[in-house]
Write a structure and sequence with these properties.
This protein is mainly alpha-helical. It has helices spanning about 15-25, 45-50; strands spanning about 5, 40. The protein has one domain (about 5-50). The chain has 2 helices and 2 strands, in the order βαβα. A two-stranded parallel sheet has the order 1-2. It is flat, with a radius of gyration of 12 Å.
């Protein structure tokens, strides 16, 4: 599995990642077709798919 940005609570603070997630959330509605895989996804969703 190679998800895009993972959404959810984290112990560590990553400023660059937070900025990237914010930008990707704003642009998400524009991600269609092959770009759809670039949308941020919640970590729980990925965990359920892995199980």
């Amino acid at each position: 599995m190679r998800p895009s940005f993972l959404l959810g609570d984290r112990k560590e603070k990553r400023v660059g990642e937070k900025i990237g997630i914010f930008v990707f959330k704003l642009l998400s509605p524009l991600f269609l077709g092959p770009l759809k895989k670039m949308k941020p996804i919640h970590s729980a969703t990925v965990a359920k798919a892995m199980i």
